[in-house]
Structures are given as C-alpha cells and as structure tokens.
Amino acid sequence: MHIVTIERAASYDRPLVKDALTNLLEPLGGMEAFVRPGERVLLKANLLTGKPPEKAVTTHPEVVRGVIELVQRAGGIALVGDSPGIGGLNWVAEKSGILAVIRATGAQLVEFANPQEVPGSGMFKRFALAEAYLAADKVINLPKLKTHEMMTMTCAVKNLFGTVVGTAKAGWHLKAGADREMFARMLLEIYLLRPPELTIVDAVTAMEGDGPSSGEPRQVGLLLAGTNPVAVDVIAAEIAGIPNKLLYVERAARKLGLDGADRATIATRGLPLPEARVTAFRLPHISDVQFGLPSFLKNRLRHYLTSRPCAIPEKCRHCGICADACPPRAISVKDGRLVFDYHACIRCFCCRELCPDGALDVQEGALLPLIKKFL
C-alpha cells in the first residue's frame, strides 16, 4: 500500500505549520527516515513567478521554512531550487518570500542550470534536467495544490516539470503540448527519471479557477505527504473534488500501470479522508474536449471544441512577455495590440500562466458551452 498522510493546518502561523509538518511526517517515520547527516537535500519548491505568498501561486515560505528546519534537524544540508517560468530565480525567491526564509535558516538557494542529458525509457528517448536536481542526495518535492488550465490540476507530478531548465520548457510544450495526453505522459516520464524521496503538498491555501497563476486563492487548511507523487496526486484530487476524467496525468498513469495510480493501493493516515474533503474546486475553462476523437475530426473541429487565449485590452500594456513565452510563436504585438495566430496556437496557455498583469482571458469554442452540459 502507498501511504498518503493528511494533517490540518488552518493558517501559515509559524508554530502551527511546524507542528503540523511534524505530525504529518510521523506516520512515515519522520524526516529522519528520509535524511541522513551530511546529505545534500534539495527542496524542489514551486517558484513559478514572483508573486507574494497571499496570491497562492508559489509554495508558501512558512512551509519551506518548516521543511528546511526539519531537514537541518536531521543533519541534512538544505538546498532550495526551481526554474521559474518568468524572472530570475533570486527575484522570484525574493518576491515570494522564500529568499528571506533561506537567509534566516542558512539554507542555500540553488539555480537550476547546467542541463544534463538523461536517456528516457518510454515514449521520449532523452531529457535534459537540471544538474542540481540530479546531483542532490535526496529530493523533497514541495508543490502547491492548484488548478491548471492545461492539465486541470498541478500538484506533485506536474511540479517536477520545473527540473527542465529555462526556455527548454517551451520546447517541450511545442513538442508535446498540442496533445494533453502526450504532455501528461511526458510529465510522468520526467518524474520516473529521478523520483523524489518525499513529497509534501502545500494545500493550506490552494488555488482554484484559472490556475496555475491567474486563479483565486482557496482556503483548504491541509498539508499532504507521501513517498509516491502519483498517489499523492490521486488523494489531492479526491480532496479537491476534481473528476477523474479531467485529470490527464492520473489517467496517463493508470494507462501505464504506474505504482500509485490505482486508488485501491492507496491508504491515508492522519486526518480521515472524509474530513479532509472540501467543496469541489472551481475548475479552469474546459480547454480541450477532443480526447478520443480521430485525427481528421480533431483537425476539422478544433476551432469549435477548444478554448483559446485572447487579450483584455484595458489590462494589456504590450510588454511582449506572452509573445516571448509562446512555444509556437503564435503571438505578436502589432500596432499597439496583441495578435494571435490561432492556427499555430497549441492551447498550452503559457501566455496566461506567465502574464504579469492578468491581461489574457479565455475565449470558448462555439460548441464548448453545449458540450459542458454533458461532462
């Protein structure tokens, strides 16, 4: 059985988070079960972009602080790293409040750079991941529970996409992002290359709606932990009330027969699961209902069955960040407005994810409102 532990944490009050983390890890043997003295332990946080903690975009600094202190108490050397979607690592760490925690605790902020090629063993034959991630003695995955416009939910498995360095992420979106099932398969193959020893989910304040950066904070008041990221994601989705048919990563994991994908093999400890469940998260716009359709129908109906990004003119300041972030280069700034090439657009919504001003909206395909009634 895969064990996923659940613990209440009503707020980010420092002593409360510290006690909650200790209780959370107790059924798993405590931090000492994962960290040995002298080991370099990488905390892979979610540092998507430079937003303050109350926006619920990044892993909360008090969760990072609590895990750092537990690692240090076990004798480990705590490192914190990620590859932000926009902005330099130091700037994002400062804006999110994590840099102050790193300085206060004596931990190290590590840049995800120097990509190292690793051979794949599935659909994709090679990956290049951050050297710091591959070289760490132990990895603790620290995702934020959020909705996601492309994958419906981002949590344990999706957080590991941050081990792909910088602009290489856009290349993977271009290679696999037009097919959400293929993209989910790619995420799982990255996870399998170097599984983290432990995952701790920040779901004290989660995000619902148009996540992972444009949604609304959602108070959940929980921390989750486990050794299998797929199993952690299955329980996180159950708590958030997200339907299985919309969980691309979990569906792909079941199709591959991965450990942790079968709900019958997962047991929870700590807070009983019925008490942990919350009213279902408000989900992102349904952006793709083409899965299962033959290719010739997908091509004909794509415009009607998918949502697409569009500008909010009064918010857009034409900074060009969305155009630079767009993997297929389907966005340009012309004559003081954004122009979208929807034939080239792969509907990955990287533009919305990285827009610093929330100046991009979603326009639904003509048939989506009708189809939503039957989903």
Structure, described:
With 375 residues, the chain is α/β, with parallel strands linked by helices. It has 2 domains: 2-276, Rossmann fold (3-Layer(aba) Sandwich), CATH 3.40.50; 295-372, Alpha-Beta Plaits (2-Layer Sandwich), CATH 3.30.70. It contains 15 helices and 16 strands. The strands form 4 sheets. Strands 1, 2, 3, 4, 7, 8, 9, 10, 11 and 12 form a 10-stranded mixed sheet that branches. A two-stranded antiparallel ribbon has the order 5-6. Strand 10 (198-208) and strand 11 (216-226) form a beta hairpin. The longest helix is centred in the middle third of the chain and has 14 residues, at 180-193. The radius of gyration is 20 Å and the shape is globular. It starts with a strand and ends with a helix. The model has no long low-confidence stretch (mean pLDDT 92). This is DUF362 domain-containing protein. Keywords: 4Fe-4S, Iron, Iron-sulfur, Metal-binding. It holds the Pfam family DUF362.
